[in-house]
Amino acid sequence: MRKIEPKYQVSWLVILAVLLVGGLLCWGVQHDAFLYKTPVGRVTKVTNRKRFSQVDNFHNHDFTQKQTLQVQILNGQYKGKSVQVQNTFSASQAMDLSYRKKQQLFLHIQRKAGHQLQVTITDLKRDTVIVSLSFLAIVLLLMTMKFSGFMALMSVLLNGVLFFLAIKLDVQSQGADVLAIFATLAFVFAGMTLFLVLGKTRQMIVTFGATIIGTLGSVVVTLLVLKFTHEQGLHFETMAYVTQNPQPVFLAETILGSLGAVMDESTDIISSLFALHEERPQMSRYQLFLSGREIGKSIMGPLINVLFLIFMADTFAMMVLYLRNGNSWGYAFTMNMSLGMVQSLVSGIGIVLAIPAASLFASSLLKRGDHA
Amino acid sequence: MSTIPVLVILLFLAMLLVGGLQGLKAFLSLAINFALIFLTVVLIGLDFPILGVTLLNAVIILAVTIYLGDDDPLTTETAFYGSVIVMVLVVLLIIPTEHWAMVQGFGNENTEDLEGLSLLVGIKFLDVSIATTILSSLGAIAEAAIAISAGLGEILAQNPQISANRLFADGLTVGKQIIGTTFNTLFFGFFGGFLGLFIWFERLNYTWEEFINNKIFVSELLMILISFIGVILTIPVTTWVMRLKVRRRQAGS
Predict the structure, then answer these.
(1) In-domain check, residue B92
(2) Are B152 and B239 in contact (CB under 8 A)?
(3) B127: domain range?
(4) Does the distance separating the beta carbons of B168 and A90 come in below 8 Å?
(5) What pLDDT, in 10s, does the model give residues B49-78?
(6) Residue A372 pLDDT
(7) Are residues A225 and A347 in the same domain?
(8) B190 neighbourhood in chain A, CB within 8 Å
(9) Is B3 within the bounds of a domain?
(10) How far is residue B164's CA from residue B253's CA, in Å, rounded to a whole number?
């Protein structure tokens, strides 16, 4: 590892090629309207009307404003036509949007009596943002990590495909076995990701074992706690985007959410222990176990914080809305943040449990391997 | 007893049992971060300037996560400076991206949850979405910064006379190992959040066009990508901070 050429050389040619490909890609996505079945239009002119100030029941001051957009249709049977569309937006823009020149929109076009077209806006076209930011992330990944970056990317793509298949399966089974499907998926995810990162080695098997124990442990603890506390203070009905029985979906979300972090930690502990064993083979099993715990101790705090911040920040928009609608802090928390909080706590327990599991597995395997 | 306090106690006991004093400090950092997150959202609700409040609390969250996460003064100081610089860079990326994508507020999928709530609340939801994205990336940035500066600290301890250039190369090597696993933490963290939404998409037969342009999906994906870019940036930035410190120390002695 140490012998790797330290110079971090990126030739101008590569940079130029990356910029060129990126530019072409963005240009292409901006002109991909012909791929869409839904009518797409580009805003060519915006005329904003007068503002009307609004005060709601909770004395929040806002305004609504109408705008008339001149939109040129880019695809379909009305391609090339220029139409006028009305839009209303507010200062907060919680559900509505204020459109600008050159933006591309999805339209709903209806032919009325005569040759009049009635056009309404359904949404903003956002594919260019997604593609360009993904491109940036992938380029950075490949530039810093080269081949292992490519493997990491592959594992995410493969996991994504599996995720989709599992969702199709879940919907086909009417959500009856959601927990079984996604628990199996978690096994497969962990196995495949670790296999792609570590190869088919002893280290991979140990890491896989520790990941499963950590995750399984946290799920068992959660189920027990939910049973004994009768889910007091939790409102599964407040979960967003729920189309089936919410509680199993919540558990499945929690398992998947914490899986990566538990894997992350087990990988760190076990690879350090393997390296340590190589350097100092005379270390006893107990000493190895203790060093594993030592490494885990320093990782767990920051790692739990990673998930905690992701789960909590996600609830911000709804929290703000609840608070501005005259709800108390406690009520807003219960309705929006409590489930994210449970998710963070459960993941935290999984992350902590994985420390002794990983240390124990690695130390026993390393020592048994020695005597055999 | 209600569920959340029981889980809090269990997590506390587990952290204390496995981590001892360090576990206690890690638990404390979680508690403080919770208070800070809650404070941020309450202040936003009280009409304080959204970006100001968020950035101020973001710096405190980074400090709490890093200084309570490790003991070594060189590691923590380097990680803190590094992560603050990365945060500034990430904010400079987030602001134009969010203006471009316009994924603030709520999507059509939220309609049911919004029943009976007034939407004209006089808060710029675009700024709220910027705040959300900044805060959700902080954990990953702090974690990566600690890992890299701890790794470099270890190398420095073994070889105090190491040249600054050599140190930079080592930082990138340490960073490579970190990215791979952090990648997983982030993707699975968000995969978990996606589940309900994806089932929704599949049930209601969304076409791929609706799907990749959907407000909520795009906003979640942007959060992953930005956190991830933040983690990658952390590697050269933290290594650079460490190199500056080492240079100064070597020049001073």
Answers:
(1) yes
(2) yes
(3) 71-110+121-252
(4) no
(5) 999 999 999 999 999 999 998 888 989 999
(6) 41
(7) yes
(8) 310
(9) no
(10) 15
